[in-house]
Amino acid sequence: MTKHVLFICVDQWRGDSLGILGHPAARTPHLDALARDGVMFTAHWGQAAPCGPARASMLTGQYVMNHRVTANGVPLDHRHPNLATEVRRIGMDPQIIGYTTTIPDPVKTHPNDPRYSEIGDIMAGWQVFAHFDEVDLRNYFGWVASRGVALPDNPFALWHPDTGPCGPTAAPSVVGAEASDTAWTGEHGLAFLRGVKISRAERPWLLHLGFLRPHPPFIAPAPYHDLIPTADIPAPLRAASAAEEAAQHPVLAHWLASQQQASYFEGASGTVAAISDAGIALTRRAYYGLIAEIDDWIGRILAELKSTGLYEDTLIVFTSDHGEQLGDHRLLGKIGWFDQSYHLPLIIRAPGGPRGRVVDAFTESVDLMPTILDWLGQDIPAACNGVSLLPWLKGETPSLWRQEVHFEYDLRGGWPQPSALPPGTPPEAGPMAALRTKDWKYVHLPGFSPVLYDLRADPGETRNVAAEPAYAPLLLEATQRLLSFRMSFAAVDHTHRVATPTGQVARRIPGRGSEVEL
Q: Known catalytic residues?
C-alpha cells in the first residue's frame, strides 16, 4: 500500500464544537461521520496561542519552551526538524494549502527579506500548492476577482455586513459563500485531489489543508449566517459580573478592559467589554455558521478523496491550532490561560484502524508529528517532545500515559497585536506557563501572583484559589510539577548523544519515540 496523509488544520476551532459531542450549535455532520469512521480524542490540547507558536509546536512536535516561537512574528530556528522536512526523507511530497505563520531564521535570511514585514510565511520543507497569505491576502483577493466578484475599493470590506454597521451582526458578509475564504481553501483542496487522481496516485503525498475559519472576522456568508437557530446557541460561561471576573487576577482585569472589537470584526470600533449580551450571541451565531460552512467543504473533500480510490490508503487528521474564548470569561480570541483557548478537536482516521473509538486520555498537538511519522514507518526525531498516538489508532490502550497537559502564552505580544501586559510591566514578566490535570490547573506568570483552579469544585474556572491557605499544599505540588516538567523536557539538541570508550552512542529518551539512529 502506498501511504498518503490528509492533514486538515482549521484555525481557532474550540474543542467542544462538534455535533457528535452534543454541542447544540455545532452543525458538523461530515466531521461527525469521520469520527464514527475513526478515532476521536476528546481531551486534546494545543501548546500555545496564537497561530505562530501553536503551529510551530504542531509541526515540529516541540513545546514552546524549546522551539521558542513565543508569538506571531518570532522566527523559527532553522535547526528544528518539522513534519515536511522529515517526510521528505522517505520520498513523500509534502504540499500545503493555507499557511503556517512562520518567520524564517534570521541566521539564514537577510534582514531585508520581505517576509520580515509580514505575520508569517510557509515553514521550510513544504511545497506550496496555494498560499493564503495572511497580510495582504493577494492570492485570495485575486481568486475572488477571477470568479467575477466585484471587489470594493477596500477589499477587506468583503467581511463587512451587507447591511448595517460593522460589529456583531445578524447580517451576512458582503462576500457570499461561493467566493468565501473557506471556498478558496475547499476549491484548492479539490483541485489537488483531482490532480492526484490524474497523475500521482502511485506516489506518496502529504497535504496540509488549512482553513482560516472559524477565525475572525466573526461574520458568516449567506446562507450560513442564519443557519443556527438562536435558541440553540448556549450562553457564555462567565462570572456574574465583569468586576467579579476581573477580581480573579490583575492581568485578567487588564485584558477585560483593553480588548478591542476591531480585532474580531472588520471595520468595527469600541471595546469588547462594550458588546451587549445580544451582541455576544450574534458573535457566537456567526462562529457556528462558519463552522458549518467548513464542515460542508470537508464533506466535499472526503467525497473527492473516496472518488480517487485513495481513501483506504490515507491517514486523515482533523484538528485546530488553538481555540477561541467566544465570550467565555467575557473575552474574545485566543488569550491567557482558560481552557477555551487550548482545548482542541482531534479526529484521526487510520486505514485498518478502529471505527468509532473515543479516547478521553490527554493528548497534545506535539503528538501529531510523531504520530504521522510513526504511521509512515519513519523515525521520530529526538527533538520531538510529543509521543505517537499510533497505539490508540491500532485499538490498543497504553498502560502508561500522560496525566497532565502543558501550554504557554507570551503576554508580550507579537504581530500585530499589542502587549497583553498591564502598562508599566517589565517585559521579562511576559512568559506564561500552564499545567493542567483533570483535577486542577496551575498558571505561572513571572512578576505576578499565580493562578490555581480546583477543577473538581470549579470546572468553569471562576475562582482563583492560589492565595487561599487551604490550597497551599496543592500550590506547592503544582509549582514543583511544573518545574520538574520543564527540566525533564528541556531541548535535547545533542544531550542524547554521549561519547563512550567505544565511540558515540545515542541514549533512549523516554516518552519521545524510538531510540535515535546516529
A: 51
Same domain flag for 449 and 348: no
Cell reading at 59 = 509541526
Are 382 and 455 found together in one domain?
no
Q: In this structure, which amino acid lies at residue 495?
A: T
Residue 514: inside a domain:
no
In a domain, 496, yes or no: no
374 and 413 inside one domain: no
Question: Could you count the other beta carbons within 10 Å of the beta carbon of residue 397?
Answer: 10
Does residue 416 share a domain with residue 297? no
The CATH number of whichever domain residue 422 belongs to comes to: 3.30.1120
**145 lies in which domain range?**
4-398
- The model's pLDDT over 45-56, given as tens digits with 9 standing for 90+, comes to 999 999 999 999
Residue 495 belongs to a domain: no
- Which residues, other chains included, contact 77 with Cβ-Cβ below 8 Å and sequence gap of 6+? 67, 68, 105, 107
> Does residue 317 share a domain with residue 176?
yes
* pLDDT at 48 (0 to 100): 98
| pLDDT of 413 | 87
Regarding whether 325 and 446 lie in a shared domain, the answer is: no
**Which amino acid is it at 450?**
P
Query: What confidence score (pLDDT) does residue 416 get?
Result: 82
CA 490, chain centre distance (Å): 22
Distance CA 344, CA 321 (A): 8
Q: How far apart are CA 98 and CA 94, in angstroms?
A: 13
Task: Grade residue 509 by pLDDT with cuts at 50, 70 and 90.
Answer: low
Helix intervals (H) in 259-367: 277-308
Q: Given this model, what pLDDT does residue 508 score?
A: 64
Cα distance between residue 80 and residue 382, in whole Å: 11
Residues 448, 249: contact at Cβ < 8 Å?
yes
**Are 394 and 416 in a shared domain?**
no
Q: What's the per-residue H, E or C state across 405-419?
A: EEEEEECCCCCCCCC
Q: Count how many domains the chain has.
A: 2
pLDDT in tens, 6-37: 999 999 999 999 999 999 999 999 999 999 99
Summarize the confidence of residues 171-190 as an average pLDDT: 98
| 267 and 136 housed in the same domain | yes
**416-432 per-position pLDDT tens digit:** 877 889 999 999 999 99
Q: What is the mean pLDDT of residues 365-377?
A: 98
d(CA 118, CA 104): 11
C-alpha cell at 302: 472526503
Whether the predicted model's global pTM rises above the 0.90 cut: yes
Residue pointed to by grid coordinates 483593553: 258
Residue 208 in any domain: the answer is yes
3-state secondary structure of 51: helix
